[in-house]
Sequence to fold (164 residues):
Amino acid sequence: MDISNTPIANINKDGTIDVLLDIYFECTFCTDCCKLNNIPATEQDILNMMDNGIEIDQAIEVLSPILIPSKNLENGLIKAYILRKKPFVKECAFLDEKGRCKVHEFKPLACQLYPFSIRKRNSFYQVIIHPDCICNFIEINVEEDKTNTLQIVSDLMSTLSIDD
Ligand code: SF4
Ligand code: SF4
Fold:
């Protein structure tokens, strides 16, 4: 079953959360997402990296932008760039030999959200399973733990500012 793009919760204007799908997810740090994805870095992500000493040519692959859905514009697109990869492989350049992220404290928004994504709806935000989800550790309709979706979305809200 393709679960990409599946909405799991709405975040209302007043900050309340409506759970749409019961899921269980706990990151196993398998690093597949760092090894197999093209990671988009927005201009804001790149500025954050540069503020932390990463040169622009270390941060991104090429200067040609791609367009990705904006989390703050309904059906809108924003410019992003592909995060730098190691030579000759698809793996992110910031993944160290022990499988840890070298830029964890200022990694791009896409990495902070993965395997989820946020999109804007008229008067609320919607949390979805990432459109290109390759993560094998999301379980759907988990009978015994129906609060995990709520916990995931609450954690995302506490680490992200979805207003910028
Ligand atoms: S988000 Fe999924 S694919 Fe990425 S490290 Fe965690 S478990 Fe692995
Ligand atoms: S920046 Fe960090 S979290 Fe993001 S893909 Fe690279 S190693 Fe993984």
Residues 34, 39, 92, 94-95, 101, 103, 107, 111 surround iron/sulfur cluster (ligand 2) (CB under 6 Å). The mean pLDDT is 90.
